[in-house]
Amino acid sequence: KQEVTQIPAALSVPEGENLVLNCSFTDSAIYNLQWFRQDPGKGLTSLLLIQSSQREQTSGRLNASLDKSSGRSTLYIAASQPGDSATYLCAVRFIAGSARQLTFGSGTQLTVLP
Amino acid sequence: NAGVTQTPKFQVLKTGQSMTLQCAQDMNHEYMSWYRQDPGMGLRLIHYSVGAGITDQGEVPNGYNVSRSTTEDFPLRLLSAAPSQTSVYFCASRGNGGRASGELFFGEGSRLTVL
């Protein structure tokens, strides 16, 4: 079964720290990988989309990398701020499977302390 | 910029009642989908559609019906609500003609409680 895993489930850091969130997946045959942010009681906001042919994507203080061969992606957040506090979800679109839908990880709940 | 709009945001039902969760998008996306989010279970796909008149089942379709008569709308119907359907429901859409490479956009969610 294709799975997406995010460790740790929760992370707390002081403001200003650079941090890395991890995502691992079980099958290297993917179309793309997408990182989302979810605030409490809200929907998912797309942060970055990395196609299978790409190694990384950047948006502002965020940088996402993709290593298909090892089944890993990282989301790097530079100079963290309290406003970055949220749950970060990784989702992978695997090539195999009838629906080709996104498979989500359980998320990492990030708290940035002022 | 409306994006993906879901209604209602909150709903309480009694067991056995029926209701429809509405989803509309104004981005001319061909692909639309419904997910449910439960604590400890993550997001799971219920049904999806790759275009008007075409729907298919996802991971957890039982107890739910969908239809897609227009590109813009993709309602989710609960015919006889059960407590196990208490959840937060998200509608999502994707462009690029339904090809796998597009970015997925989510609505704000509909929180459903079944008593």
Describe this structure in words.
- The complex is a heterodimer of chains A (114) and B (115).
- With 114 residues, chain A is an all-beta fold.
- Chain A contains no helices and 11 strands.
- Chain A has strands at residues 4-5, 10-14, 19-25, 30-38, 44-51, 56-59, 62-67, 72-77, 86-94, 102-104, 108-113.
- In chain A, strands 2, 4, 5, 9, 10 and 11 form a 6-stranded mixed sheet that branches. A 5-stranded antiparallel sheet of chain A has the order 1-3-8-7-6, with no helix packed on it.
- Chain A starts with a strand and ends with a strand.
- Chain B is mainly β and 115 residues long.
- Chain B has strands at 4-7, 10-13, 19-25, 31-38, 42-51, 54-57, 64-66, 76-78, 87-94, 104-106, 110-114.
- In chain B, strands 2, 4, 5, 6, 9, 10 and 11 form a 7-stranded mixed sheet that branches. Chain B has a 4-stranded antiparallel sheet with strand order 1-3-8-7, with no helix packed on it.
- At the A-B interface, strand 4, strand 5 and strand 9 of A face strand 5 and strand 10 of B.
Biggest sheet of chain A: strands, sense, closure? Answer: 6 strands, mixed
Distance between the termini of chain B: 35 Å
- Can you tell me the overall shape of chain A? globular
* H and E string of chain A: EEEEEEEEEEE
Largest sheet of chain B: 7 strands, mixed
Task: Give a short overview.
The complex is a heterodimer of chains A (114) and B (115). Chain A is mainly β and 114 residues long.
Topology:
The complex is a heterodimer of chains A (114) and B (115).
Chain A lengths: L3 E2 L4 E5 L4 E7 L4 E9 L5 E8 L4 E4 L2 E6 L4 E6 L8 E9 L7 E3 L3 E6 L1
Parallel strand pairs in A: 2-11
Antiparallel strand pairs in A: 1-3, 3-8, 4-5, 4-9, 6-7, 7-8, 9-10, 9-11
Chain B lengths: L3 E4 L2 E4 L5 E7 L5 E8 L3 E10 L2 E4 L6 E3 L9 E3 L8 E8 L9 E3 L3 E5 L1
Parallel strand pairs in B: 2-11
Antiparallel strand pairs in B: 1-3, 3-8, 4-5, 4-9, 5-6, 7-8, 9-10, 9-11
